[in-house]
Amino acid sequence: MTGVAFPRDAKGKRTTTRAGKEVWAAAALALESLEGRALAQDILLEKDWRHRYPKHLTALAELQSTVERAMCVASARGGLAALHDHFEFVVEEGEDDETSRPLADAMREAVTDGRTYLRTARIGRVAVSRSPPPAASEALLASARAWAADGAIERDVVDALERANAHATEWASERGLFKDVVFVLLGGTSELCPLIPLLERGATVACVARGEAGIKSAAAIATASECGGTLLFPIKPKPWEADLRFDESKAASWREAWDEGRAGADLIADAPALAAWLYALEPKKRLVIGSYAYLDGEAHVRASLASDAVAAAVLDKRPDTALAYLTSPGTAFPIPKSAWDDSKARHERENWTWWHQPLWLFTGGFKPNCRPPAKREKKLRVIDEDAEVDDASAEMHEDVHVHDGHLVLQGPNYALAKTLQNWRAIVARDDGHCVSANVAPASRTKSMLHVDAVKRGLEGQKHFAPLRAFDVEETRDMMCALLLHDLGHEGSSARPEWGRREDGDGRHPFDAFGATAAHGGTWRCAFSVDSIGKAAYVLGSTIG
Predict the structure, then answer these.
(1) How many CB atoms lie within 10 A of CB 160?
(2) Residue 323: beta bridge partners?
(3) Which of 149, 167, 352, 477 has the highest count of CB atoms within 10 angstroms of its CB?
(4) How far apart are CA 530 and CA 528, in angstroms?
(5) Domain extents in the chain
(6) How many CB atoms lie within 10 A of CB 85?
(7) 257: burial class by Cβ within 10 Å (0-12, 13-18, 19+)?
């Protein structure tokens, strides 16, 4: 193993459970409260972490969502710091020994030594006469309206898609949405990644993926050539070029690199080199770094952390950089009251629907999706001598509806890989960066369908309205349009200004995840998705 790695425990073994629990505990301790300390202890002492982790992670999200803004951000920083300081970067590894150092040190050195370890290959651009397609097609808009009516996505998703279409030309011409931006896609060949939609719109896209993972994709190359997009990707230098400074204006030969097996880069193994590459890439343009890598099991944590390390290093050197994520509904954070109310109403209506009863008995029972709301203290703004001030004596309690979307089947590694992205979104926005982190629905990707039990369960969810599984193209195109909306619309929740406002409802850092969410129905379903898993499998196996 080389690259980003879990830390060794006291016995010298790299274990995922202990490392993960220490990260969660660090985030809880950073709250600097008695509740946070107690939760950290509960996390560290939990014996059955594999099956009981959702309870603790939801409790942490509830604490983070109800404390004041500064403490929420501090907790997110604490979790990220534990990841970067404790996880390691393995430089070399043999059968009996290895050379490793803290990940934070490896990333810091890569962007400060002045060398570029990777070269750039470029495909495109050619002049095109036709206009690029709209942000959202008419077919996608029609589907989105139906999904919103059913409760599978929130209504503001439709509003955002319509706004993106109405202002797409303006954003492209006046704000340089495509001309002055490089979209960096980490895990750029994953199925839900917007590689093709962005190239179709004439964007410049830097695709980071392993060579064998599909950089050679004929579709991507054809799109880059036919639609005026520009495709960039890293290539490793020839051995005798490794220590030479590289003139970025001399684009490398991508055909030669492919033939010699030097195309692409491994996100986990090459994270420091990728950070240095992006630091120097197209210096006159703004970078938008999207994290789309997905792997199974513990490798997902390492890939997600590698993406975070690359993004954090570039943010530090190029402060106008924006970030993009596909937020998972399978974590915990606050949802809008309207979604919670709908879930509660559905539960009251459907709790004893006739066909639910035998399934309830057979599969162990369904749990209500609408957890009791938590209370967030909120200082009132009062007028004192013609000036608005915070009155510490005048406080009110605001209901916060934290949704527990964890699936025990997915496991604690998945939860850590996705939640660390939520933490980075919170921290980066607080630091003044634009962060697009819209919730994306469960989709029929190969990673979901290659396990038969998961495939059957996914298809069976549709029997619990308003749950639905989305096709890959539906999700990819919708989330790409929402990304463009977040970058172009000044009032988007992706903007740091949105989170800094204190005079309106819902400006807490965690509340941003409740905006423009395509959750696939998980927020509004009568029952928690985890509790209906067995029933969904039975229905998916027998009815389809």
Answers:
(1) 26
(2) 289, 435
(3) 477
(4) 5
(5) 109-336+401-543
(6) 14
(7) buried
Residue 324 pairs in a beta bridge with 290, 436
Residue given tokens 């539906």 in the structure block = 474
For the chain, 544 residues long, give each residue's pLDDT as a single digit of tens: 789 999 998 888 999 999 999 999 999 999 999 999 999 999 999 999 999 999 999 999 999 999 999 999 999 999 999 999 999 999 875 555 668 899 999 999 887 765 667 888 888 765 555 567 889 999 999 999 999 999 999 999 999 999 999 998 888 776 668 889 999 999 998 999 999 899 888 899 999 988 755 555 545 665 666 777 888 889 887 664 544 444 444 445 666 776 677 788 999 999 999 999 999 999 999 999 999 999 999 999 999 999 999 999 999 999 999 999 999 999 999 999 999 999 999 998 876 565 555 655 555 568 899 999 998 876 544 444 555 555 454 456 789 999 999 999 999 999 999 999 999 999 999 999 999 999 999 999 988 888 788 888 888 888 899 999 999 999 999 999 999 999 999 999 999 988 665 544 448 999 999 999 999 999 999 999 999 888 888 788 788 6
Q: Is 503:216 a contact under the CB 8 Å cutoff? A: no
**Computed over its alpha carbons, how large is the radius of gyration of the chain?**
23
DSSP letters of 339-401?
A: HHHHHHHHHHHHTT-TTHHHHHHHHT---BS-PPPEEEEEEEEEEETTEEEEEEEEEEEEEEE
Rounded CA separation 171/84 (Å) = 36
What angle do the packed helices 49-66 and 16-29 form, to 10 degrees?
A: 20
User: Measured between alpha carbons, how far is 503 from 497 in angstroms, rounded to an integer?
Assistant: 12
**CATH code given to domain 109-336+401-543:** 3.40.50.720
End-to-end CA gap in the chain:
41
Whether omega for the bond prior to residue 119 falls within 30 degrees of 0, making it cis, is no
Residues contacting 85, CB < 8 A, separation 6+ = 102, 103, 104
Query: Are 472 and 192 within 8 A, CB to CB?
Result: yes
What DSSP element (H or E) covers 471? none
